Amino acid sequence: MVGIVGKYVYEKNEGFEEFMKKVAGTAGADLAKHVIQSKPTFEVGFADNKYTITVFNGDKSTVNTFELEKEFDEVLPHGATSKTVVTKNGDKFTFVSSFLEDNTLTRVYEFTTEGVTVHLSEKKFGGKAIRYYKRV
């Protein structure tokens, strides 16, 4: 098992632009453009049986603290809030986030010694993407 606690910097995407355009639609085109151009870094911490993930995106940061398998209100980097549950299986975290209009976003974080690969999928539009981060 690899360590999950640490800092990670954005490397690249696969299918992320198409994913964001599909999910955001025309109403969210400006937001999608901003998210597509972002190159976030994030840090994972662990204390008192709780994980904290801090996402840094330009001059803005978003902090979420959670316990595994317990629903919490997650604030996403672009400001939206979702009801999220995180499970852990070995070196993988799976985030399942529920939004209005019966949509679910699933993010699977696969941690390795080199970094983390994030697989994104959402239910309503069938979008899928991958984001890669390097451990620093």
Question: Please, could you describe this protein's structure?
Answer:
With 136 residues, the protein is mostly beta strands. It has a single domain (6-135), classed as Lipocalin (Beta Barrel), CATH 2.40.128. It is built from 2 helices and 10 strands. A 10-stranded antiparallel beta sheet has the order 4-3-2-1-10-9-8-7-6-5. Strand 9 and strand 10 form a beta hairpin. Helix 1 packs antiparallel against helix 2 (29-37). The longest helix has 9 residues, at 16-24. The radius of gyration is 14 Å and the shape is globular. The chain starts with 5 loop residues before the first strand and ends with a strand. The model has no long low-confidence stretch (mean pLDDT 90).
Concise synopsis of the structure shown:
The protein is mainly β and 136 residues long.
Spell out the key features of this protein.
136 residues; mainly beta; ten-stranded antiparallel sheet; 2 helices; 10 strands; Calycin; Fatty acid-binding protein
